[in-house]
Each structure stands twice: as C-alpha cells, then as structure tokens.
Amino acid sequence: MTNDILLDIQGLTKEFKGFVAVSDVSLNVLRGSIHALIGPNGAGKTTLFNLLTNFLVPTSGNVFFKGQNITHERPSQIARKGIVRSFQISAVFPHMSVLENVRVALQQKQNVSFQFWRPEKSLHHLHEKAIELLDSVDLSSYAEELAVNLPYGRKRALELATTLALEPELMLLDEPTQGMGHEDVDRVTQLIKKVSAGRTVLMVEHNMNVVSSIADRITVLQRGSVIADGSYQEVSNNPLVVEAYMGANNQTIVGAH
After folding, report:
1. Same-domain pairing of 207 and 255
2. Which of 138, 141, 156 has the alpha carbon at shortest distance from 210?
3. Disulfide: which of 7, 80, 123, 181 matches 29 by Cβ 3.0-4.6 Å?
C-alpha cells in the first residue's frame, strides 16, 4: 500500500437475509482527493457509507484507513481516527444559534460536548475557532441566528462547519446538495471545493454537474457492485455507466440526477 492511499476498501460485501446490498466492492481513495461515489437509486452507496463507519457490520471484506484495519472498530473509534460523516439529512441543533452549533462540535472534539451547564466564559477559548470555521463556510454573518431560521442551503453549510470542527482527515459527505435549488447547489459545491484543501473527501452525490466540476475520481455502483472507476471523462463514456443511468440508447450521463 502506498502512502498516497488514505482509504483502502477490499472486497466489501453486505447481505441482508439473502439480498446482497453491497457486493465485493474494492476501491482506493487517494489522500487529498475529492472522490465521488455515484450510481442509480438502490445501488448501495449509502449502505457502503454505513459499512465504512461501522453503522453496519460487513458480511465480508475489510476497510483499511492509513494502513490500519478499521473494519470492526466502533463508530466512535473510527471518528476519533479522523473519518467523519456528514449525514444526508441536515444534522444541526435547530434552536441553538449557528455559533453555538459549531461550538458544541468543538466541545465534542475536546470530549466535553455534553456539559451544557458549563459557564459561558469557560467556553470562550472555543469562540475564536468557531468564528474561524463559520468564516470558512461563509456563515460568519449568521453567527447569532438560530439554526432553525437558516435557509436550507445555509443549514448544509453549517453542517459542513460542524463536520470541520471535528478536524476530519477524511470527510464522508452523503448527498451534500440534495434538495437544493440551483443557487444553493453552486454555493455548497464551491464550499466543498474550498474546505477540501488539505483534506480528503469521499462523497455520495446524484448531481452530475456537481460531480463533474469538483471530483478528481469517480466510482460508479450498480446493484451493489462497482461497474466503473476513473475520471469523469472515463466513466461518462463507459457504456455500462450510460446504460445504468440513462438506458442503452443514450450516450452521456451529463445532467443525470
């Protein structure tokens, strides 16, 4: 294994009472890259994410992170090693301010996340870092706003900030632009590109315009198996991918959702 491979997935399989949701999936995620995982609905993308974070236990196969086998480690252990997942549904505290949401995530990094009774001044040392994180996702002007009042795209930006607060080495982003209008999609896409500097991102994404604009490498799943892997140009011209997305008579996956 070279030092360039951050995540190494080897023959990962998950069966549910005879149904194979993920079938012998192997792929490498290179350090410092944005790697997209795409495929039609039901292809096994979210199941694969659940296997990587051990929310589901694989039937067979192994996952290596920085050369260490993490296949059977608890989700909390995996997070401490530097793999942090951003969930498909925006996961913020709605009735706390934007700043407080980020500060809670920073507390979690310091193992004091549930000590909500701590006096305000004892958390002051986290304030500057929280503001810095909000600035990185263009939310500093929303710092005092309740999270519940944020527009949907801004909530996803806040979720990105809380993910960054945990200082991930590998960010797993599950449908980061789902349900967004065009303007929000563009904004969040640019934020992902911005915050990925010096980090590694593995993302599940349906929007091919997003994938084509920021992904360094793409792995395509269909019915739980890898059917293509490579650059956007390579996979978009692959007949198996074209058929999986659009039917055999179409020649491109550009714009497929």
Report:
1. yes
2. 156
3. 7
